[in-house]
Write a structure and sequence with these properties.
about 300 residues; mainly beta
């Protein structure tokens, strides 16, 4: 039996098929799939310029009535993540455009934001032990590397936000069980580790960031992916209730997950990223991701590795 299993593994592999969907909500902790569209809105089959295994980690921004979504494309040629772009005029129907950032190392989690009329993007780049900042030189398709915000560890899913005259940065590491907190006077200046950091230790349920940190009506909401037992299981929400350069306190907003695997279809197994945007009073739209699994025959390229 063991020989048979080994033989099967040589020719067949289990694959996580991540896709991207759109949810709507009445608050930052109440999101559902809308009835007027069919999720997922983006899959690997939509990617035209590279062979794609999956798409995941969506973040979006609205400028002049157009939605721009940035996300990871797992490139089947080199099995590394690239950052891609899709656009929409209503936030529900999306058109794939192209790969916009392609490095020799893996990229994911393209945390895009606007500051002082400039567009910035911080992708996960833990393969090179750094948190890298990119700036658009011709938004949305051309980006240039600015600097390493931090280096020296396998920082994962760095998430930045501006609050009370400081920039703040939350990041985990590959183990997903620790959450570090940093702050800076300016985005491009030196980042200082908070005296309470790490603010979470030894807890895969709530440590690793799972989407954009939202500052709305004086409240700070952070999303965290639950990676206990199963990577990308579900997303929880916490309100940061006390944030200064000396203090950090938070509370879980709801005991229930914000998004999770549905048990069937494109997000059957799990979900692990959400990026909400307010579009009206008590009305939010969010890009999310989810996955199901499949068994596929290995290519000769993969067999030789």
């Amino acid at each position: 039996m063991n020989f048979a299993k080994k033989l099967i593994k040589q020719f067949v592999k289990k694959q996580e098929n991540w896709s991207i969907g759109i949810y709507v909500g009445t608050s930052l902790v109440d999101f559902v799939a809308p009835e007027n569209i069919k999720n997922p809105v983006l899959t690997a089959q939509d990617v035209k310029d590279v062979p794609a295994e999956f798409v995941a980690d969506p973040f979006m921004i609205n400028e002049n009535g157009i939605w721009y979504m940035f996300f990871e494309v797992m490139n089947a040629d080199d099995h590394k993540g690239d950052i891609a772009l899709a656009t929409s005029i209503n936030g529900f129907n999306w058109t794939y455009q192209q790969i916009v950032i392609d490095e020799y190392f893996h990229l994911s989690y393209p945390y895009v934001f606007k500051w002082n009329n400039e567009y910035y993007l911080i992708p996960e780049s833990n393969e090179v032990n750094s948190i890298r900042l990119y700036k658009a030189v011709d938004f949305p398709t051309k980006w240039t590397f600015v600097k390493d915000l931090m280096s020296g560890d396998k920082y994962s899913d760095a998430s930045v936000f501006y609050f009370e005259d400081y920039w703040w940065l939350l990041t985990s590491v590959k183990s997903s069980d620790v959450l570090y907190l940093y702050y800076a006077n300016d985005l491009l200046e030196t980042w200082i580790e908070h005296p309470k950091s790490p603010v979470i230790k030894g807890n895969k349920n709530i440590a690793r960031p799972g989407g954009r940190v939202i500052v709305s009506d004086g409240k700070i909401v952070r999303y965290t992916q639950d990676d206990e037992h199963l990577y990308g299981n579900q997303v929880r929400a916490f309100e940061i209730t006390n944030l200064t350069t000396r203090n950090y306190e938070e509370k879980q907003i709801s005991k229930d997950s914000i998004i999770k695997g549905s048990g069937r279809g494109w997000n059957k197994i799990g979900m692990h990223n959400i990026d909400p945007h307010k579009i009206d009073e008590n009305k939010w739209i969010a890009c999310v991701d989810g996955y199901q699994t499949s068994w596929n025959f290995r290519s000769r390229k993969h067999n030789s590795l």
